[in-house]
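Moderator note: this is an archived Q&A kept for reference. The question asked for a predicted structure of one protein chain; the sequence and the answer are reproduced below.
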Amino acid sequence: MGHYRFSSCAFFLATLLALYSTKVMSFTLRRGAALLVSRRVSSPALIPFATRCWMSSQGIEQTEEEKARIKAEREARKAEKERLKAEKNAKKAAQEAAKQSAEEIHDVVYLSYDEQDNYEPFGDMARVMSRSRTGRSFAKVQDLGVKHQAGDSVWLRGRLQSIRVKGGSCFLVLRQDSFNTVQAVFFKDKERPEFSQKMIQYLKTLTQESIIDLEGTLVESDVRSCSVQTVEVKISRIHSVAKANAILPFLVEDAARSEAEVDASQETERPFPRLGQELRLDNRWMDLRAPANNAILRVQSMVCQLFRESLYSQGFIEIHTPKLIAGESESGAGVFKTDYFGQTACLAQSPQLYKQMAISSDLTRVFEIGPVFRAENSNTRRHLCEFTGLDLEMAINDHYMETLEVIHNMFRHIFTGLESRMAKELAIIREQYPSEPCTFTDEPCVIHWPEAMEILVNEGFDVGDGKGDLNGAMELALGKVVKQKYGTDFFILDKYPMEVRPFYTMPDPDDPAYSNSYDMFIRGQEICSGAQRCHDPNLLEENLKMKGIEAGDVLEAYIKSFRDGVFPHAGAGIGLERVVFLYLGLDNVRKASMFPRDPNRCIP
């Protein structure tokens, strides 16, 4: 009973409270509406939301002016919000731009060493366009630690061989002339944090094989991985002169490894890549940066220099003969033809006819270094379609042996000169391409044809009637036996059968089936071919008929020069690339040619 009374009282009190609230709410709503209608409230926004909802439910409408004012105020609030947001974003962007500008590294227009303190000590060098002579004196890497000592400040230009940036330090290797290298370093300076940060930032942008200039101070060091081992360069200034692509066809260090080193690595966890010949030749400029390959071309240059030196000392002069020949060249075979203003012309197979006509011109000892073209579809390791010929021709008194002695002296000068003047380059080459120095005799080692045939028969070769030419296997076998018997890699084989020699070859006086001709060999492979020439015009014409060659305009002029009188003479033609290739014991003649031309390659 007591519980019932309590529940009734609670219900009664709740009912009274609801009625009171309704009356208060009704009064509030009516009061708000009255205020709005009487315009005592300056803005509808100040009317409580509930009041506005009640007005709408009671059908009390706002005027158009009130609606417009409400809309304008709402848009003003929105615009103010957008303005504040835009102002905040602009401030943030300005801060980012200022930060980026402070961190940006600009190109450096370096005009004068005297003004370099006004230039940033890092950044790409503006394109070198001959704006000025800067006055910088660049040192050679090979002189560091010798001419330039620890404590000296030096400027260097070279290739960036390698770079490693970690934290606040950087180690890089600068390379000059393919095989002179020095280490350069940079360490963060705690007293110049902003400078150090930007220097590290710039160093990270440098790419391998780029051309860079750097200035720094030499400090004592022990660096085993570079050719300069006693000092390194502490970098104070560095600029990229010409940036290399970040992705290269291959790394120079991979091109510089020997076959033995590559083979040995194949069984390890990190085998070295094996670079194919075509990849190397397609990017020959990269391949030639490898120390050994670069040194090969330097040896090639020295061969030409020594060739000239020897012949100049023996009374020769240098000539330059035409490379465009009218008609069908010497024999009409193996020539490149081209149109010559409506006529057929050929690229010269050799300077043969013209160096003989030089003898008829009373230039009695001549030589030439020039291109030779052979349209022979020979895809071997020792044949090229274009090579450099080392040619010589000389008048003789009695015997072609006079010429053999001149040529032997010339090759002795080349062989001894290479070993004495190019010792550094030869050591670098032989590290990647192992070989031994070429052995030779003091006097010409001449093997006559009959002896050669006897040697080959003893070696198991079928030489037939002994009047055919030698093939590659025969030459190698002959070279092996000559080395064992006479102790020389360099020898001369003479008295070749007449039928395998050119029409201008002088026949042997005792047996016209043979000839006064000769070839010269290094390590059992031919590098030179020559002969006493036929200086009798009538005999020349007989030889042409015997070989079925028609005398065109060029040969008519050639023979006519002999009809007007010519000295007896002999000579030889030498393949420069062959000499280098065989002297260095390389496996392919293309390694001895800067940009080789063969039946499948005419680029780059």
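Archived answer notes: Residues 64-103 form the longest helix (40 residues).
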